[in-house]
Specification:
By secondary structure, this protein is an alpha+beta fold. It has helices spanning 14-24, 55-66, 86-90, 94-112, 146-150, 152-170, 180-183, 190-201, 203-213, 219-237, 239-261, 272-299, 304-324, and strands at residues 3-13, 46-49, 75-84, 117-123, 130-135, 174-175.
């Protein structure tokens, strides 16, 4: 199978900067929404560039330093993910992995300037090592403009081309993945897979809780069931939004999977391996959609106003719990 260098960029407005800081810098004790994080390994995480404060503080400070104008809806930070094909990274020693991330870091200092970068941290406490790099999109003229620097979706594709060209100079065994504009494949945020998998792991518990809510004459068991549902309510409330993202892609995936079954030797072109990798990624999205559909049928049994009430209550509980720490 081919080996890919992976680089993604996400736009961040000021309201999302602190949650990103809390995640990247591991400010939480527990990560309910991200079961892949092994807190026993968090001490293995390291910085290529360590932040000198909280992200929000550093972002606002940088904008003020250059005298840039900021609107309420301005994109104030780019959150970038850098990793590679898991098997390719795992073949490398810890020193070689670090060398890869440091080399990738130099790409960002070259194109976006080091003074705009506020943090670059490598996470070793998840399934696949990866680097989160955050920078403030300040132009050479001192303007805050993600649009000028990144250039929207077409510009992002060009930056990914540049990143591949840069990485392949040092790592010639890396290949360029099929761009989304060619493959029509959606990049589904990782948290969507994690939330769906976590809920699916507790499918039986949730089923029993829904059944117990309807029982008569056993107030204790009914309250226990409501409490259990409340624990997963915020995640369950996300399902409809997630399904809206993946639903319109499902027909395409079904056609792709059907064509895969009909593959024959004539199809073995130079792009064969890339096509298989694409189909594997699409299969993951297909599996996510299947799980979500089953969960949606389950959640639909709960009155919307009850689910919303439970979700809000659980969110408040989580805030209080976090504040107590």
């Amino acid at each position: 199978m081919p080996n890919y260098a992976i680089m993604r960029m996400s736009k961040c407005k000021i309201g999302s900067v602190t949650p990103i800081f809390n995640h990247h810098e591991r400010q939480k004790v527990k990560y309910k929404s991200n079961p892949d994080i092994d807190t026993q390994k968090t001490h293995l995480n390291y910085h290529i560039q360590e932040p000198t404060g909280r992200y929000r503080q550093l972002v606002l400070k940088r904008i003020e330093e250059v005298g840039a104008k900021k609107r309420k809806d301005s994109v104030v930070m780019q959150d970038c993910l850098v990793t590679a094909t898991p098997a390719w990274l795992k073949e490398k020693s810890l020193e070689e992995q670090r060398e890869y991330f440091e080399y990738a870091y130099e790409f960002f200092t070259k194109h976006f300037r080091k003074e705009n970068i506020i943090s670059a941290v490598v996470h070793m406490d998840e399934a696949n090592p990866h680097m989160h790099l955050c920078f403030v999109p300040i132009t050479e003229k001192g303007k805050l403009s993600s649009k000028e620097i990144i250039g929207g979706p077409p510009g992002l594709c060009k930056w990914q081309d540049k990143f591949f060209e840069y990485i392949s100079e040092k790592y010639p065994d890396i290949v360029r993945g099929t761009p989304a504009k060619v493959s029509h494949r959606k990049h589904i945020p990782t948290f969507m897979f994690k939330v769906a998998n976590e809920l699916f792991d507790h499918y039986g518990e949730i089923c029993n809780a829904i059944n117990d809510i309807g029982i008569v004459g056993n107030a204790k068991k009914k309250n226990e069931a409501i409490s259990l549902l409340g624990r997963y309510a915020p995640e369950m409330a996300q399902l409809k939004t997630q399904l809206a993202t993946t639903d319109k892609h499902i027909d395409y995936l079904e056609r792709e999977l059907l064509s895969e079954r009909n593959l024959n030797s004539d199809y073995r072109s130079k792009n064969y391996e890339q096509e298989l990798a694409l189909k594997e990624a699409n299969r993951s999205i297909y599996d996510l959609n299947r799980k979500q559909k089953e969960l949606e049928r389950l959640v639909s049994q709960i009155p919307p106003e009850v689910l919303e009430q439970l979700a809000q209550r659980e969110k408040q509980n989580r805030k209080r719990s976090k504040g107590a720490r």
